[in-house]
Design goal:
This protein is of the alpha+beta class. It contains seven helices and four strands. A four-stranded antiparallel β-sheet has the order 1-2-4-3, sandwiched between helices. Helix 2 (about 25-35) crosses helix 5 (about 90-105).
Length: about 170
């Protein structure tokens, strides 16, 4: 059990990748795992767009400052959500699928970084040919890691845990 917890804590955002492109079978295996993420009413509103065309990848990498890891990543995946399949929780549903996808990539020995895409929805829709009812919620840069970053600092539990009401820091109150 502790091994599983350590595995979860060992995932890192990887922004430098080796040139070797991961086989499509590994990406599809990770997407297969992501399908098991929880979603409201089991709506499964996610879609995964594999980006391996260098021209499309370069355009994605230039959308905003934080998409730059895509420039040197062998490939990327855009997680997009069908609003009509989960109107009230599509973002949460697709965030769950994105996290499952990231953890599956980690389990398969691949490196990845999550890139927030919500500030450039219209630009991404146009670039990827997404219909109006589909929203891109995440871009993932993927490849074999060419770095091993240390864990980033985390807030202490005392700062983020409350009991029964916000701000109550002791179970005895």
């Amino acid at each position: 059990m502790e091994d599983h917890l350590e595995f979860l804590k060992s995932r890192r955002s990887i922004r430098r990748f080796k040139e070797e492109k991961p086989p499509l079978e590994l990406i599809l295996k990770a997407i297969d795992v992501a399908r098991y993420a929880p979603s409201a009413k089991n709506s499964q509103p996610w879609r995964f767009i594999i980006i391996d065309d260098p021209e499309v990848k370069t355009k994605l990498a230039e959308i905003h400052l934080w998409t730059r890891p895509l420039k040197n990543a062998p490939l990327g995946v855009v997680v997009a959500c069908h609003i009509d399949e989960s109107p009230t929780s599509y973002m949460l549903d697709c965030a769950n699928a994105t996290l499952y996808f990231l953890l599956a990539l980690h389990a398969l020995g691949l490196g990845a970084t999550w890139i927030q895409s919500l500030r450039n929805v219209e630009e991404l829709k146009e670039l990827l040919g997404l219909p109006n009812h589909v929203v891109p919620v995440a871009i993932i840069a993927i490849g074999y890691p060419d770095e091993n970053p240390p864990p980033r600092p985390r807030k202490p539990l005392e700062e983020i845990v409350f009991y029964n009401k916000y701000g109550v820091k002791s179970k005895n109150k």
